[in-house]
Structures are given as structure tokens and as C-alpha cells.
Amino acid sequence: MSLKKRITSQFYYYQWLFNTRKLRADFPSYHILSIKDTIDNIIKNKRSVSRFGDGEFRLMLPEYQLEFQENSDTIREKMREVIGSDLENHLVCLPEPLVSVRSFDVITKYWWKKFINNYGSRISPFLKKNKTYGNSFITRFYLGYEDKSEKRNLDIIQALKKIWDKKDILIIEGKYSRLGVGNDLFDNAASVQRIICPEKNAFRCYDKIYEAAKEFGKDKLILAALGPSATILAHDLAKINYWTIDIGHIDIEYIWFLRKATEKIAIEGRHVNEAETQKSFDIPEEFSKPYQQSIILEIKE
User: Fold this and answer.
1) String of b and e for 20-59 (b: at least 16 CB within 10 Å)?
2) DSSP 3-state assignment of 111?
3) Dihedrals φ, ψ of 3, to 5°?
4) How is the chain split into domains, by residue range?
5) Which residues in the chain show pLDDT less than 50?
6) The pLDDT value given to residue 1
7) What is the DSSP-derived secondary structure letter of residue 113?
8) Whole-number Å distance between alpha carbons of 202 and 63
9) How far apart are the C-alpha atoms of 290 and 50, rounded to whole Å?
10) What pTM, to 2 d.p., does this model score?
11) Is the CB of residue 251 less than 8 Å from the CB of residue 180?
12) Distance (Å, whole) CA 124 – CA 141
């Protein structure tokens, strides 16, 4: 974005912010940890993680659907259970911009302030002012932030990698998520296995996914990238002392960082639902064989 456009955008953002301030006046302040403190908490206390973003919040409300996940009474009840969780081995994470947009670019600032305008009064009854939440943006650490410097982001990436360092990991992901394929994100793990799930409406298969996670995830670190189903799965598995992290968009953010992206771009071999265009789902030949070998189960509807 040119300096002139940036200044203009900032001007209109702050003008809009002032004009809509009454819509946010009653939205409470919550305690959300920094990205670094969230990662430290996960490692030190071996805590499972359920992350809430705009989609998870919307699924708590009866009239909303997502493009990739239909709503239902069961999802709604599960989401409300998760957000109220007080399990010792489980961390509920909220989006950092709910409490501060200081570190973000103007587009992200506007998006989240608008979200609070539209949904703040509807989600606040489910949140606790005296509770400490983790930061959902541990997996969205790059693109929306103003500081896209290599040092800041490498520090975060190295901290994240400590979570699975020398651990056997089980990735539970959508068909076209393909976490770590073609990059070094999980190169420091002891081993990587995968369970592949439907790319849309995965919750229809939730019981199968949960049973497979119990069967193949015992004594492993489970990383779930499965939209709202991962949010619920991490909580349900925490109840039986399985260590599960709702890892979300981490792979896409990592690739965007490596490519120095300044907007949400499509990635070959991946489904990027937030990108305007979609590249081929084909995996480059040099990465296809190890990826296929890592798959231990594919769950279909």
C-alpha cells in the first residue's frame, strides 16, 4: 500500500472508529495473553488449546452458517461448552484484537472493530472478565500484524516449534490442509502421522474423528487443523488427558511469511479459503511420497 493510500485509509479508519464508538462502549475488557506467553503456557503446563475466531463465535449463534461448516444444535452446544471450559489442562484462546488492535495493520483493525460492533453484545455473555485466556493468534502471527519483520516472526516460529520438538505428532487435518508439506515447519518433530478428514462439514464425521484420535493419538501430541471441529476436538480430548492443539492456519501463515506476502494469497497444493483465487491442489512430486506415507487413515462421510 502506498504512503498516500495508507494515510487515507488511516484517516478514514479513525473517523469511522470515532463515529461507531457507541457500538463498542459496553463491550468488556478481557485478559488475553500475548503470543509469547500463550506459547510458554502451552509448553510449561502441557495444555491443550481450543482457539476461537469469528467463525467459532458465529457458530455459537443459531442463525449463522460458515462456508465450510454448517451449523447445528450440537455444534452450538459444544462451542458454548468449550468457551466456558475451566479444565486445568486446557486453554481457551480468544482473538487478540478483542482487547487491543494496537499491533495490527489498518485492515485488521477495522475488521475486528466492526466484528465487535456487530457481535460484541452477543458473545460477551459467554466470556468471563476474571478469566485469563490464551491468544488465538498464535497461529495467525504474521499477515495481519503491522510488524512483518523477519526477526519478530522468526522468534515466534522458533517458539512454536518448541511445542513439538522431538515429539511424535499426529496431525488431524482437512483433505487439502497438508500441514508442513513442502516446508520445514515440523522437521524437528520425532515423527509425523496424519489422519485426513473431509475438507468441508467435518463435524458430520466428528464421532469417527474423535475415536480415531483416541486410537492413534495416545502418547502423541495431536495437532488439529479442522476448523471449528478442531476447537471442539481439543477440548473433548483434553477431558481424557490427550494433549491436543487446535493449530488452525499455522502452515498458511508460515508460507505467507516465507514468501513475504502482504495480502492473503493462494498457495499451490493447499485450500486457502480466505484467498480470492485458488491454485492447483496437486502436490509437487518431490513432496508427494513422504506426504502419502505419513497418512495412516482417511475419514470420509
Assistant:
1) eeeeeeebeebebbebeebbebbeeeebbbbbbbbbbbbb
2) helix
3) -60, -40
4) 3-298
5) none
6) 58
7) H
8) 19
9) 29
10) 0.94
11) yes
12) 24
User: At a CB cut-off of 8 Å and minimum separation 6, what does 196 contact?
Assistant: 173, 174, 175, 295, 297, 298, 299
- For 62, residues 6+ apart whose C-beta sits below 8 A from its C-beta are 71, 76
Q: Which residue has the cell 503446563?
A: 45
Instruction: Let me know the angle formed at the C-alpha of 273 by 163 and 142, rounded to the nearest 5 degrees.
Output: 45
pLDDT tens, residue by residue, 9-27: 888 999 999 999 999 999 9
pLDDT of 225 = 96
Scan for cell 522458533, then name that residue: 158
β strands within 175-247, DSSP E? 191-197, 221-225, 243-246
Coil, helix or strand for 21?
helix
Angle made by CA atoms 84, 228, 154, in degrees to the nearest 5: 95
Mean confidence (pLDDT) of the chain: 93
The per-residue pLDDT for 282 is 80
The residue behind cell 467459532 is: 56
> Which has the closest alpha carbon to 68: 229, 199, 250?
199
Q: How far is CA 114 from CA 12, 126, 156, 250, in A?
A: 14, 19, 27, 24
The Cα-based distances of 280 to 41, 179, 180, 267 in angstroms read 38, 16, 17, 8
Give the containing element (helix H, strand E) for 254. Answer: helix 250-258
Q: One-letter amino acid identity for 85?
A: S
